[in-house]
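Input/output pair, single chain:
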Amino acid sequence: MTTNRKSLRWILLHSGAGLAVICSLLTGLRIASLARPQVARFEELLPQGQVIELHFASAVAITLIVLIYIAYRLIGGRRAAGHAQVLQWPGWHRAIIRAGYPLLLLSLVSGWLLFAGGARGVRDLHYLAAFGVLVYLALHAGLYLARWGRQSLLRIALPYWGPRSLRRWMVGSTLLVFSVLLFTGVWSATREQSHLPLTVTHIPLLHPEHPPMAIDGRTDEPQWQGAAPITVYTDGGANFDEGETEVTLRALSNGEEFYLAVRWRDDTESLAHLPLMKTERGWQVQQQGFHNFDETRHYEDKFAVLLSSSCTFGAAGTTHLGRKPLKDRPANWHGKGYHYSSNGQLHDLWHWKAVRTNDMFLADDNFIGPPDQARPGERRYTAGYQQDGKESGAYVMNWQWYKPGVILPKRLPPDPKQLAALQSAGGDASEWVIPWFDYKPYSPKQDANYPEGTVMPSVIYNSNRFEGDRADVRARGYWQDGYWHLELARKLVTGSPLDVPINDGTCLWVSAFDRAQVAHTRHTRAIRLNFAPENSR
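Output:
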């Protein structure tokens, strides 16, 4: 039996690789379930919580094991393994084993390409390679057990013991300690230090030849000409071409305020936010996923910016995937997960909405903090994703209560002609917003004036804009020729405990939404702000 066993070094490398690959596959499939409904069907089998960090930790482990194995073979592992040669694999099984090498290499290369910034189609290649590795593991392990039965477990778990075994044990133990230290160092450096730099160009607070900065999305002021752009590849979103869009960012600061210019590709301008339609049963919300808070058809375009003093993976550790990542809190309806802080840290979230906030010239100033308490009667629980406080101003939905089948509007226009522009596919953002006093309280008599098939907006402005903490972020965007252009501005320090101060080293993440409620694009590495010296301009 002893001559049929492997060396300790082989067992350490084989076991470590197996555990890391399985962890990578399970966490990777959980991440893939965000954009692939076919994977989400098996969500009960997949891990939940902060799986993004686990996925990258396993990727680092696999990469180091592959490098150590290559070095081991080059230094003399082939010769040493000859003393403990075990199982004479049939030719077809050797072919399966060797087929696993390029699959694993493809998975690693595509994964690191995604980490580095990605390119079109790389995520699909990574996904296919992962399934290839999954099939390889099933065939390799299954054929191993089928040929040698339960004894095969002993053959790969108990190391070979021979005349030089003590020396090999010492070498194996040294290799294990070295590998753990190397993994810890590489993982820490990757987790904390790897980011995309965005230079924040300094501009004078006042300049005799430069006009004041107008937040209108146009970026036609001369101040923007000297701002160096970066382009961030994002993917995994609904409705974008192959789920992908590139986001170009530029940043300025005058010592008091921070300005961010954003441009991203979106082939269509989507402004019809959950429109209402008159049916034979009454008014109905046009939706295909809003009942699960995952609308991907009848929704407005949006853009989000997360700011944090932390630069770690998973949007500063706030991304927790799965239907119920919090055991003592409600499950989410869509199965994608929650955003919340596990360590009590607050993170700033700017949420621009093409209909609900654009005419306010604002982005909704929100934050991500610890998981909120669940409240009786609350239909949607959002964990740590919360809104800053406001003194006044709001938008509300034009229904007294929501049911997927039928709703009762709060208000109706007094004249059906007010809705004429919306009875076709056109219409700008202002036409999809109801000024409160332009409509009248709902009455059955007024309702009778509207025939079946009439389309009506669902967003009502109580006032022109928010006031208070929720109005700290000025923003305005416009769509043209397949691209959204957006400007955002906020004071570097607002004084609000719910806002993250913006300074050198602040990290941010960006997400684009194409007529989607929660199915946004994403990127892995943080974007780190590097403030240029004041005398650089």
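The radius of gyration is 28 Å. Confidence is low (pLDDT under 50) at residues 79-87.
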